[in-house]
Specification:
- Helix content is about 35%, strand content about 30%.
- It has about 260 residues and is of the alpha+beta class.
- Strand 3, helix 2 and strand 4 form a beta-alpha-beta unit.
């Protein structure tokens, strides 16, 4: 689908709120946006670059990267997409001490196109503060998190702030044969959606390893699209390193983001 300017603005605004939910400091200037987090260095970044020329961009990138390291004690990354200016900043970054580390994909879809794709039917509940441990347990297993205490603190902060950024957490369960299939059994899949700025941002879709390849992740995505539809949002989007999975659910790649890490 075509990525309109309004949708792009919605995605950018949601991203800033999502980062703030992890206790990031997000500062948006006309020519650059900056994210700082001394406790979770993976979020330290420069993005939405809009400089008039390469010389100015080089000077400012170096300046802000140095400030981030001074403030947080960690190196910064540059998130570079096709909307950054000037063009061909990727040719400049190696000379500034950055290397290409990874690529993420932002995919978008009409909400109604994703809502209708429900391959299975599993119980999905919205998780509030009282159920956060079950959500964090499932997330940690789904994404192979080894630093559990570190991860628990990270998500606990997000739960505390979810009401301020319209960020909702959902947990899906494998039906329990012991209970006749009418009550939730084992946690199987997690997901989030943020609905603050005119588009539904779907994040953290992950399935516990022993429940993979059973359609649970697809069901969670479709469910979250339904949540977006109930909020009268016409579009949903995801940010992922696995675009093929979401293309099967009705999404199309809107743009790529190259993650350049400071060496």
């Amino acid at each position: 689908m075509e990525l309109t300017r309004d949708l792009r603005v919605s995605i950018a605004a949601n991203r800033s709120d999502w980062l703030r939910s992890w206790s990031c400091i997000v500062i948006c200037f006309e020519e650059i946006s900056i994210c700082l987090n001394e406790h979770h260095p993976g979020y330290n970044s420069l993005f939405d670059l809009q400089y008039p020329d390469r010389e100015t961009a080089a000077s400012q990138i170096s300046c802000w990267a140095e400030k981030i390291q001074q403030e947080t004690g960690h190196r910064a990354a540059v998130w570079l997409d096709r909307y950054c200016e000037p063009e061909h900043l990727n040719l400049l970054l190696p000379d500034l001490g950055f290397r290409l580390a990874s690529t993420s994909y932002t995919l978008a879809a009409k909400t109604e196109d994703v809502e209708t794709r429900k391959p299975v039917n599993i119980p999905i509940w919205r998780i509030k503060t009282g159920g956060q441990k079950a959500w964090i347990d499932a997330y940690s297993h789904a994404f192979g998190q080894v630093e559990y205490k570190h991860d628990f603190a990270r998500w606990a902060q997000a739960f505390d702030k979810q009401q301020h950024v319209e960020l909702q957490f959902y947990l899906g369960f494998r039906r329990s044969a012991v209970l006749g299939g009418s009550f939730p059994g084992q946690p199987a899949v997690v997901g989030q959606i943020i609905t603050a700025h005119g588009a539904g941002g779907i994040y953290s879709i992950g399935t516990v390893p022993k429940h993979r390849r059973k359609g649970f992740a697809s069901e969670m995505v479709a469910f979250l699209a339904t949540v977006a539809g109930q909020a009268e949002l016409q579009h949903v989007y995801v940010v992922t390193s696995n675009p093929g999975f979401f293309e099967k659910l009705g999404f199309t790649v809107a743009f790529q983001t190259a993650i350049w890490e400071q060496i």
